[in-house]
Each structure stands twice: as C-alpha cells, then as structure tokens.
Specification:
Strand content: 15-25%
Structural class: alpha/beta
Order of helices and strands: EEHEHEHEEHEEEHEEEHEEHHEHE
Oligomer: single chain
Largest sheet: 8 strands, mixed
C-alpha cells in the first residue's frame, strides 16, 4: 500500500467520507432495530426501472439491518394505461379514483397481479424474502363502501374497517418483507379499490409503526407548488389542517397528508413524505441527520434533529 507521512496509509477521502456516512447512520439503525416501518411506494415514483431498483435496495437494506419494512404500493399510471387501452377514461374526485365495476376489475388485475408480483420478484433478486399480498388475502384489509361526498358516488372505493395485524406481524417480525396491493374486501366478498396512501396509513396505525414513509414524485409539501425552495421540512398535525384550508395542499396530496395526520393521531411516531424519483430516498431521510423531505409530527414533537 502506498504510504505517506512517515508510513501512515494513504486513505482516499472518498473512503473516509463513506465511513463517516455509516457512522452517522449508526444511531438511527440502533433506534429503529426491531421496529416496523411502513413504506408507501407511489405509482408515479415507479416509472423508472433504475430508480425502482435503488428504492428496493433501500427496503432490502432496512431488513438486513434489523428493521421490519412493510411495502404498500400504488400503481396509478399503470392503471391509467390499462384503462386507456380499453377506451375507458380515468376519472377522479378529490384525488380518489372513481371506480365502477369494470374499472375495479382492471385495478385488481394491475395491482394484485402485475405490479405486486413484479415488486416481489425484484426484491427477491436483491436478496430480500418478499411475500406479495392484497387485502383479500386472509382478510388482510376488510372494508366498507366509501360514502358519497359532494354528491359524487366513488363506486367500488372502500374505507378500511380492519387490518389483519397478526398476519403482518408474523411475516414482518420473521424474515419476510410483506408487499401489499391496496385491494380490499367487504363482508360479502366484493373487491374494493383503496387509496394506497390511505391503506398505508391505516396499516401503519394498526401496527403502531415507528415510521410511515410516503414515496411520491414530489419533494414533500411546498408552500409554493412550483418553488422547490419552499419545501416545508417539518409540519405538525394541526398545521396540516390549516395548509389544506388555505389551499397550500391540494388534489392528490390531500388524502396523503390527511393519512399522515391520522396515522400520527393513532400512534405512529413519525411520517415522512419523500421524493421517490431520486436515488435512495429512504436511506437519505431516515439514516441521515439532515433528511430530504417533509416530516409530519405530533403537535408536541417539534425536533427535526431527532427523526429516528
């Protein structure tokens, strides 16, 4: 080995920096070891195969360092594409898909069939032992029809009434990574579409997860939608309501942040909204001091520096 300064090894600054990054992650790994982290992987963050691999590497790494990740995935763009091929227009109300019987069949096919199994296979190729599930498996997610709002009937869109916590704990606390498609079932065995953000929130709340992470195609919550510099680093549950009322939070972000708030109120410690279109967003957020997205916290929890 090349020497300098009287025989001391010549270390690369890059290698030293890598070592410093690992040391920075250590207290977060220690705090999260044995804890459950629910990750919602959004359809709009799934469009790039290379980025998808990096996100699934993050999930696999969490499992290998002793964290219990549970992955809930969406699939909006794939559903839209499938419906378009069939000549069916995609319609939404307040960020929720209006789902008739024919649309529900496509939703189930795309989510529980194609995307769920693709994610399971990809995790397997990275060394993760993933198991694909949808809400219809062992009554994982039982639902009731979501009532009409503003005079709009959403069709086969469900509100979760129960989560099979025992099943998820058996899998996640063992060596497996549950991968969940947000398709639920009612008391009559009918399939229902569930907003993936809402599903992740309810699952995290039922499990009293340490963290809930939303991966989407935006940096987080911004005061000005078109200004990345206006990113809100941390926001309390009560501030979320004010931001919705003032029009800062709109469209599909509304059910996301409402889900964040409900999860906090039901016992989830921290919720993070991250840009899933950048490499390794989960690791950058939860294993570094600075973090990258928006953290939602309880009103009496205001220290960004104690994310873990």
């Amino acid at each position: 080995m090349e020497k300098k300064n009287g025989g001391s090894p010549l270390y690369s600054d890059i290698l030293v920096e890598k070592a410093n990054i690992l040391i920075e992650a250590l207290p977060y790994i220690q705090t999260l070891s044995g804890k459950t982290v629910v990750i919602k992987y959004g359809g709009n963050a799934m469009v790039d195969e290379e980025l998808t691999t990096k996100i699934l590497q993050d999930v696999t790494l969490l499992k290998y360092v002793g964290v219990n990740p549970i992955l809930v995935h969406g699939g909006g763009p794939d559903i839209n594409a499938a419906l378009s091929k069939m000549g069916v227009e995609s319609k939404f109300h307040n960020g929720l898909r209006i789902t008739d019987k024919a649309t529900m069949e496509v939703v189930q096919m795309v989510l529980a069939g194609k995307l769920n199994k693709n994610i399971v296979s990809a995790l397997g190729s990275l060394g993760g032992k993933a198991i694909g599930l949808c809400g219809k498996d062992a009554g994982l997610l039982t639902v009731e029809k979501k009532p009409a709002k503003d005079g709009v009937d959403l069709g086969y869109v469900g509100n979760i009434v129960s989560v099979n916590v025992k099943l998820l704990e058996l899998l996640a606390h063992d060596e497996y990574i549950p991968v969940i498609a947000p398709v639920g079932v009612d008391a009559q065995g009918e399939s229902y579409n569930i907003n993936a953000d809402t599903a992740a929130s309810e699952i995290a709340a039922a499990l009293k997860a340490e963290k809930l992470v939303f991966l989407t195609d935006v940096d987080g919550i911004r005061m000005q939608a078109d200004d990345p510099a206006s990113l809100i680093s941390a926001v309390s549950v009560s501030e979320v309501g004010r931001l919705i009322a003032s029009g800062v939070i709109t469209g599909g972000m509304i059910p996301k942040v409402q889900g964040c708030a409900r999860a906090i109120e039901k016992g989830v410690s921290r919720v993070h909204i991250l840009n899933g279109t950048i490499p390794h967003p989960i690791i950058l957020e939860i294993f570094t001091d600075k973090g990258i997205g928006t953290m939602v916290h309880a009103d009496d929890d205001v220290e960004r520096g104690t994310k873990a």
